[in-house]
Design a protein that fits this description.
Residues 257-283 have a biased composition (Basic residues). It comes from Phaeodactylum tricornutum (strain CCAP 1055/1). There is one protein chain. This protein is α/β, with parallel strands linked by helices. The strands form 2 sheets. A 6-stranded mixed β-sheet has the order 4-6-1-3-2-5. The chain has a 3-stranded parallel β-sheet with strand order 7-8-9. Among the domains are: 8-145, Gamma-glutamyl cyclotransferase-like (Hypothetical upf0131 protein ytfp); 191-224. It has helices at residues 5-11, 29-33, 85-94, 122-133, 159-172, 174-183, 195-205, 211-224, 243-260; strands spanning 18-22, 44-58, 64-83, 98-103, 108-109, 139-145, 157-158, 229-231, 268-269. Helix 5 (159-172) packs across helix 6 (174-183) and helix 5 crosses helix 9. The chain has 9 helices and 9 strands. Strand 8, helix 9 (243-260) and strand 9 (268-269) form a beta-alpha-beta unit.
Length: 293
């Protein structure tokens, strides 16, 4: 996607000192612009080695937000936004409960299946040059949850939040959206169990009266059946939800999710886990798009 003349004038002669890696809602340029309105609307799509995306950040809003975790053999697709130090401080304020950590520039790579036109803007050329030259003066930042936790019934995955991420992914490429769905961990909370969790279970089994082991086994059995994912399109949990987009494109997004994520079939309606407030009125249905993802 070529940058228009207006954007070319803005970026001509620019230098990149800092870049923020967007891997969740920040993939959506509209969502990112709510924090820093002067951001480019054409961020740099890339793959980062050494991290993996996961549903692992509990929000005070009562949902689980997107996070990443360091993983030696992991990869994560996302976008890079060149930012000023002032804009960087704004993202620090947005990403409460996350630690800003630096990514080595040698871990950044372009995405093979994207055509050259995705990388023809001046900003993208600068990123490609920085990556190829492993320039240490370009600092790449990622926000990592300070206290990672998997989704649970009190902090479910909110569909309106998923919709915002998919909106950004589909603006880039349908395969970009597919990778987000397939490679993100935590749709099933069991995916986020660690080796330490398994070791603690083994120790419990040796409890002298067996009571702890029995309780743990019952807990594991119940947990394995819990998919903490709710359809909140009628009453959004996510504070930056785009209700018009969710209502219009929801059927197509659901088809994409159903195709690539089996847990989708166990998604619940928000009304089934939370009481409706008094005076609740169902939103009028909007005409859906004919586009099939």
């Amino acid at each position: 996607m070529s940058a228009d003349c207006h954007n070319c004038k803005q970026t001509r002669g620019m230098k990149i000192k800092h870049a923020v890696f967007g891997y969740g809602s920040l993939i959506s340029t509209e969502s990112a612009a709510k924090t820093a309105k002067n951001l480019t609307d054409n961020p740099f799509p890339c793959t980062i080695k050494g991290i993996e995306r996961a549903w692992n950040k509990h929000s005070v809003k009562g949902m689980t937000a997107m996070g990443v975790q360091w993983a030696e053999n992991g990869t994560c697709t996302g976008v890079l936004y060149p930012v000023s130090e002032k804009e960087l401080s704004r993202f620090d304020r947005r990403e409460i409960g996350y630690d800003r950590q630096e990514i080595p520039i040698e871990n950044v790579d372009r995405i093979d299946y994207l055509d050259e036109e995705h990388y023809d803007s001046e900003e993208h050329v600068l990123f490609l040059q920085a990556v190829a030259g492993k320039r240490e003066d370009v600092r790449i930042w990622v926000y990592v949850p300070s206290n990672p936790c998997p989704p649970d019934e009190d902090h479910p995955i909110a569909q309106t939040y998923v919709d915002i991420i998919l909106q950004g992914c589909l603006d880039i490429h349908v395969d970009f959206a597919r990778e987000f769905i397939e490679e993100t961990k935590g749709w099933n909370p069991q995916e986020l169990l660690t080796d330490e969790d398994d070791d603690s279970d083994d120790e419990d089994i040796d409890d002298e009266d067996g009571e702890v082991a029995a309780n743990q086994a019952l807990s594991d059995e119940n947990t394995s059946d819990v998919i903490a994912w709710v359809n909140d399109r009628d009453r959004p949990i996510y504070m930056r939800a785009d209700t018009d987009y969710s209502q219009k494109e929801g059927p197509q997004l659901d088809r994409l999710l159903r195709r690539h994520r089996p847990e989708f079939r166990r998604r619940k309606k928000r009304a089934s886990v939370l009481k409706k407030p008094k005076g609740h009125r169902k939103r009028p249905e909007l005409q859906t798009s004919n586009q099939d993802y």
